[in-house]
Amino acid sequence: MHCAIVDMVEERIAAGGADAATLASLIAESLVDLILLVPEDEQAKLMAHTLSALGDLFLQKSGVDGGGSGSRH
Hints:
By secondary structure, the protein is an all-alpha fold. The chain has one domain. The chain has 3 helices and no strands.
């Protein structure tokens, strides 16, 4: 799923149909929709997990944590 999303985003940017900020907002909206699918008493935990994963993945992939490869896939 990850690779399919990345490919779709890259295609949209290359085609000039959207900018990165707009696409990031749409992806965030999709995450919110996913979070709202779980029972209400689990939503805060899933949102916290999602934000933590976002930060961790950014640090890993950007190489800031010293162990990242910088790989996007």
